[in-house]
Amino acid sequence: MVGRVVSLVVSAFLVACDGGSDPAEQSLEQTPSSQCPAVSMDGLDGKWLKYSGAAVKAFRFQVADVGGEKELWYTGGGFTKRRMAGERRSNDYVFTEVPGKEKLARYKAGAVPLVRLYVEPRPQDCSLRVSEMEVLFSGDKEQEKPKGTYTTYVAYPDSGPDLSFRHCDQELFIGPAASDKAVADQQLVENGTAAPSAALGEGLALGAWSPVMGEEGCTYDMKLYFDDEPARDAAGAFRDPVPVTGESWLVSDWYAPYSGNHHFQIAQRKTCGGSTEVIGMACLEAILQ
After folding, report:
1. Are the C-beta atoms of 48 and 128 separated by less than 8 Å?
2. Domains and their CATH numbers in the chain
3. What's the whole-model pTM score?
4. Which pick of 89, 135, 171, 226 has the fewest CB atoms within 10 Å?
């Protein structure tokens, strides 16, 4: 039963991600029931991880209540994160990708599919049963195409690695466009998106141009993610959140000395009265060369 192996999954996952033992392992092994949440139609909120003989961190999602409706933020094997809207049924939820304007037009033209997940709580073994579908639009109606059989998801451990879950909702610019809005605007005119390449370097500039809302009594900062994990400095230590000091979300000293295709994310955060919330996520998949 999945419920009996949850603690083993968590322990193996922590070792695989952290490269060694974790102080939480022993307590997790001793109290596997503590890792068995109240899985129900009303108990989906939180983070979930695919289990297929072992933990699969490339497949994960977070369910949240947004304005009284369920949303699911899905990472399905790569860096792409999809925002999905939920519909409650008698025994499960149906979550369907919410596309942007451009993708919606392509979907309606039959050029690209959307993703749909059927999520069924299984309290008997502390898991979720998830079926993924491709949704195609043809002949003025949608058609579902299954992607394999159902998969199992278990609760993401509180002591697990701080991976990125939230979907992206705005452009992130690299190089001169990060600090010069005219350059950023020109890229959007020419490409429809931020230019996805930059010279390799240890002090890259990245920034987003959504306004920083200066609410009285609140502070703003940026939590940085590189390839879905918290960004590190040149010494290999995780970076602290970067305070916002101007009117844009700008990081001028991002350490990324690795060539190839990489994913950058800035979680835009607001702290008021001791409570911190993410108010936006700016992303860019860029080629460093």
Report:
1. yes
2. 2-155 (2.40.128), 170-288 (2.60.40.10)
3. 0.83
4. 89
